[in-house]
């Protein structure tokens, strides 16, 4: 029996304020955790993305055997697009990309009940008393023993769900509602209280606690080189240094910040600075590297990461940099959102050896520590 799986990952994350699918849980992104959980069970794995997050989602899922399709403005449109892209299967499981802690046991039970009854929705009994409120007035509470909290995955007979979506998805709050609106019964499978959906920042903290994460630390290293050039400013760590030569480059050629940015991106498992700020893009011509560093910091924050400390070594025979070190530290700290005592900036020479020793240019090394 062929099993297809759809990972719904086209949401806007408006309530979260960041792309929750890229947030790291115990060193692995939310979307990667969600998709990987289904790999052992899926004959076909389809991931629904939006135009806004498709490139990032593809990067996060690099190496997984999955297909991608473009979602619509609503969940129903997104699932319909995924069903159309799959074409055919015996059963289909649909899972929220923002539920990164789904267990193998929950998936197995959903598949088993779907095969037996044609539908299965992972669910758990409600722990709290639920009341329906109208204009601020609480109505009669239904018996708690009859109330269940719906989760995902939700499993269905593929053909029935595919036929139901075009005609029964209006006002449906989940895929089970579409199936039910088409006249088919909905059955419960084993859920898990840890199988939470990340909707608010507090949910991220809870997910990390469930994942038994103390605090994952990441290290990254960066290296960059720029040659001296005439008629250019010399800028290092956002500080302009008086000198008769500057550094050649498409941006302001701040070699120290470029090494730092690469260290940050590397620690986050992302591409290098040239990928995000290519020298082929005119908008980065003579760009202020402090602004680029702040943008990198925001990119890390969207993944739930922040710099804990940074150490930069600038290798230059000339000019003398010691009078500017403290200003450099302050600049870097402000861009990373940390205090200056967590930033090290050192200047050294190569004792006249190599291209830096011959005063042909400047090199820089950077090491960073990231925390979630």
Explain how this protein is built.
With 372 residues, the protein is an alpha/beta fold. It is built from 12 helices and 18 strands. A hairpin with a 2-residue loop joins strand 8 (133-134) and strand 9. Helix 3 (75-86) runs antiparallel to helix 5 (158-168), helix 5 (158-168) packs across helix 6 and helix 10 (289-302) packs parallel to helix 11. The two termini are 41 Å apart.
What are the SSEs and their pairings?
Elements: E1 3-8, E2 24-25, E3 28-29, H1 30-36, E4 44-49, H2 54-60, E5 67-70, H3 75-86, E6 91-96, H4 104-117, E7 119-125, E8 133-134, E9 137-138, E10 148-157, H5 158-168, H6 175-181, E11 188-190, H7 201-210, E12 217-229, E13 235-236, E14 239-240, E15 246-247, H8 255-267, H9 273-276, H10 289-302, E16 306-315, H11 325-336, E17 343-348, H12 354-357, E18 361-371
Parallel strand pairs: 1-4, 1-6, 4-5, 7-11, 16-17
Antiparallel strand pairs: 2-3, 6-10, 7-10, 8-9, 12-15, 12-18, 13-14, 16-18
Helix pairs in contact: 3-5, 5-6, 8-10, 10-11
Uncertain segments are none
Number of separate helices: 12
Say how many strands there are: 18
Main sheet strand line-up: 5-4-1-6-10-7-11
**Which range does the strand content fall in?**
25-35%
């Amino acid at each position: 029996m062929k099993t297809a799986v759809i990972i719904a990952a086209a949401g806007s994350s408006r309530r979260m304020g960041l792309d929750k699918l890229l947030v790291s849980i115990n060193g692995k992104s939310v979307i990667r955790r969600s998709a990987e959980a289904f790999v052992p069970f899926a004959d076909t794995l389809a991931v629904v993305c939006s135009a806004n997050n498709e490139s990032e989602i593809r990067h996060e899922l690099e190496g997984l055997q999955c297909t991608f399709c473009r979602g619509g403005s609503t969940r129903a449109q997104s699932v319909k697009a995924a069903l159309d892209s799959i074409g055919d299967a015996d059963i289909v499981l649909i899972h929220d990309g923002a539920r990164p802690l789904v267990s193998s046991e929950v998936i197995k039970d959903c598949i088993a009940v779907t095969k037996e009854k044609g539908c299965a929705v992972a669910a758990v009994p409600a722990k709290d008393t639920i009341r329906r409120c109208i204009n601020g007035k609480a109505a009669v509470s239904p018996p708690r023993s009859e109330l269940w909290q719906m989760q995902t995955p939700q499993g269905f007979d593929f053909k029935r769900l595919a036929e139901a979506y075009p005609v029964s998805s209006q006002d449906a709050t989940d895929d089970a509602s579409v199936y039910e609106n088409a006249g088919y019964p909905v059955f419960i499978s084993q859920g898990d209280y840890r199988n939470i959906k990340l909707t608010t920042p507090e949910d991220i903290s809870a997910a990390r606690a469930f994942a038994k994460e103390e605090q994952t630390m990441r290290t990254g290293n960066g290296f960059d080189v720029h040659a001296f050039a005439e008629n250019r400013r010399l800028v290092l760590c956002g500080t302009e240094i008086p000198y008769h030569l500057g550094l050649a480059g498409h941006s302001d050629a701040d070699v120290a910040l470029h090494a730092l940015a690469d260290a940050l991106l590397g620690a986050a498992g992302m591409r290098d600075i040239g990928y995000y700020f290519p020298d082929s893009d005119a908008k980065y011509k003579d760009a202020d590297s402090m602004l680029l560093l702040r943008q990198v910091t925001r990119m890390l924050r969207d993944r739930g990461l922040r710099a804990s400390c940074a150490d930069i070594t600038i290798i230059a025979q000339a000019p003398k940099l010691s009078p500017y070190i403290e200003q450099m530290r302050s600049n870097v700290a402000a861009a990373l959102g940390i205090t200056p005592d967590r930033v090290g900036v050192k200047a050294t020479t190569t004792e006249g050896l190599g291209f830096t020793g011959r005063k042909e240019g400047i090199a820089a090394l950077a090491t960073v520590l990231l925390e979630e």
